[in-house]
Amino acid sequence: MSRRLHARRAEGVDKNVWVEFTKLAADYKAVNLGQGFPDFSPPKFMQDAFCKAVSGRPMMHQYTRPFGHPRLVNTLSKFFSRIVGHEIDPFEDILVTVGAYQALFSAFQALVDEGDEVIIVEPFFDCYQPMVKMAGGTAVYVPLRPKADGAILSSGDWVLNPEELESKITPQTKAIVINTPNNPLGKVYKTEELQMIADLCIKHDMLCISDEVYEWLTYDGSKHVKIASLPGMWERTITIGSAGKTFSATGWKVGWAIGSGKNIKCLKATHQMSVFDCPTAAQEAVAQGFEREYEVLGTPESYFKQLPAMLYHKRNKLAECLQSVGLQPIMPEGGYFMIADISSVKVDFKDESSEDEAYDFRFVKWLTKEKGLATIPVSAFYSPEHSKQFDKYIRFCFVKEESTMEAAESILRNLRQ
Ligand code: PMP
Ligand code: GLN
To answer: How far apart are CA 187 and CA 316, in angstroms?
Structure first.
């Protein structure tokens, strides 16, 4: 028998929904409401900032401070201190990363040990589970459940059961991961819900990894609350953010983790042993973006007001269209995704080879290949144990140009025939 030359941590994590479905969308030149990225440019002030950063000063093209470009960490600290209600030290309490993705990876590597358990709230952004596993931990799942009473129309109707959540906590539980606004559901956690989670974190001495990449995208009066701002939570929360989502520039891959210096110090250690330094010019441009937003926050000029206002209309229009063709949507309170129930569309898949695949995976492949519309199967956001219960939903991304939305809506309307 030949020797196993690969590391075990690389086993069982090779399949990736984004790799698979982004390629499928491209191969079939489908209208793409799949992967979450805007198909329009970042605002002009961000493009100008980037151009300015790369033209001129030589140091913009060289390494910057490994844990975050000074101008960026300074502005992030100024910006978020007043929101969290805690004086954030720019050099101790912040780590700038290659997108929120790397902030998540650094957090799991830095904080999760062999044998630790990490509670993940379902549905969850798919990378949490393999990242916990690669750190040697075990993921333990707690689902958001639709309230039993009546029609389920809003992401706000999906809630955690506090007893169920507490029942999953053991002496090995190191952390809980939450994501608000949630991808793919669009749930925006209310203060009471966050307080319940915070109480459990404090009672059981656990950390909270709070993925808040869609923090500026809330609708219908929903308010994004940072769990780190609740009493006793600053010390035990790692808050993760993304400039890609914040400024519609996902390809810049600038993200960050913010938390108490004691925890961030450990993330810095894993960061300096993997990535070490993030691209300087993109950080400089993001810094300028936050400086501008600091000045205009709360006014109509703020991009953090303009983007959700634009998405609000796209969300409503997509929901109306889905409803009119019998694909019951769950109205998201935040983020830029909407999930919809596909049970009412009867499909003759023809393709016998994929019969043992999850229903939503087959449906999404059919919709992409046969109808030219790319989406994402929602069971990908569940653990293998629970995915079967949620394979009647697919996810639509609505951070797209009007022309893209119209093309998608036209395909959806034709489904009725
Ligand atoms: N968290 C969530 C919930 C996401 O949807 C994404 C995808 N953007 C990320 C993290 C990763 O963000 P980034 O593109 O900044 O790496
Ligand atoms: N966060 C984006 C989404 O959910 C992109 C994910 C990815 O490409 N890894 O669609």
So the answer is: 16
